[in-house]
Amino acid sequence: MKKKYIMGNWKMNMLPDEAAKYMEGINRLTTMLKGKEDVRKIVLFVPSVDYYIANLMKEEQIYVGLQNMYFKDKGAYTGEISYEMVKALNAEHVLVGHSERREIFKEDDSIINEKVKAGLNNGIKVVLCVGESEETYNEGKTKEFVEKQIVKALEGISKENISNEEDLIIAYEPIWAIGTGKVCSSDDADNMCKVIRDKVKEILDIDVPVLYGGSVNEQNSNEILLKENIDGVLVGGASLDPEKFAKIIYSGHKLGE
Known about the structure:
alpha/beta; 10 helices
């Protein structure tokens, strides 16, 4: 059975007491996955204020990561989290390039590239988010736009920076499908994930996991996860409910199949 990556992004949600209650629920609901990382890898990207309690309470089948990381080790960068801080917390995974960081906080391709390099050069597993706007999608320019994002994000990086396939994971999240209820068709998502994998292979000569994100929920996750070129999902709103998130975790294939 092919390994699937199920990742949840809490975004700016959950106070620490809410995070503690959530972790109790998701631990209980995923107990049968202990020792089965070869079929499911679960990662929760939490706000930095929740990291301590979430990481403390998580059981072995769950990883806790951070939603942001700056590419400097320290300095006058108010509000930022350095890669050294991420390492000190023993956070193995970090999100880079999410469209909300690009659009709201004006992170451009050069900043994304610096963050990717900082993560990979410091033993942090990077989940790089890419995806097009609705305007780009309607113009039929999705492929060239996303390929350009990947080229710029991976500039100056070689396969020597990557020790195993999980060091770099790409999440395809069409912006028009994030939190809108609009879902990219599973066939289109599958095709774009193949495009992304092929482009990374062309640049780095390695195969990396490629995930789909964008209004993924417990109703559509099964169809998405069964697609040949989709290695997992990055879930937003539905990851805030442990019951819904657990249903997504178990979708796609039956364990032991």
